[in-house]
Amino acid sequence: MEGSPTETWMRLNQIRNRALALPRAKLTGTVAALLMLAISGISFASIGTGNHAVLLAPTPLDELGLTGEAIDPLARRALHLPPAEHGAVVTSTRAGGPASRAGVRVGDVIERVGGLRVDGRRTLTQAVEGGKGSTLRLAILRKHQHIHASVERQRMGG
Q1: Which uninterrupted H or E stretch holds 117?
Q2: DSSP 8-state code for residue 43
Q3: Domains of the chain: which residue ranges?
Q4: What is the pLDDT of residues 9-19, one digit of tens each?
């Protein structure tokens, strides 16, 4: 892959997110059904090597319309983050979703939600739980600049 380390990292995450959305299914109908679930914002995961998928309940991150991961060495290098930087790197945002509307971008590092420190996906998920429909204040690091975004949780399923 050509391009800057940041572009390469973002492209790899796009590929990874697409791969996670596609089960190892042999049936075209199953693949189409699972793609429709992904487009609808419903989380799922493939299991085994057959054509099975497990539906997962919407997560707090789904309510924000984003996915985030821990800062791994590749992301740290690509985003030029210092060794002590903490947070969760935004790996995708749902077009028109709450995070996207609030200006959150792929590659942003969410450092805090409200007053809670974020150290990866699990602490990000825990920090955004509860209060569906309420607004969260995110502390974000973007290209070495500290910014804030207010994101309203979207009610899932209705």
Answers
A1: strand 116-117
A2: -
A3: 5-55, 60-152
A4: 666 666 555 55
Question: Whole-prediction pTM value?
Answer: 0.65
pLDDT digits (tens, 9 = 90+) for 109-137: 999 999 899 998 888 888 888 766 788 99
Give the 3-state secondary structure of residue 33. helix
- Residue pointed to by tokens 């969260």: 136
Contacts 24+ apart (CB under 8 A), 122-126: 123/88, 124/61, 124/68, 124/88, 125/59, 125/60, 125/61
Question: Considering the domain 60-152, what is its CATH architecture?
Answer: Roll (2.30)
Which structure tokens are listed for 33?
């059904």
Q: 52-83 b/e with 16+ CB inside 10 Å = b?
A: ebeeeeeebbbbbbbbbbbbeeebbebbebee
Single-letter amino acid, residue 17:
N
* Residues contacting residue 134 through CB under 8 Å, at least 6 positions apart: 152, 153
Query: Three-state DSSP class for 1?
Result: coil
Structure tokens at 46: 């493939």
* List of residues 6+ apart from 144 with CB closer than 8 A: 80
Let me know: does 77 contact 7? Beta carbons within 8 Å: no
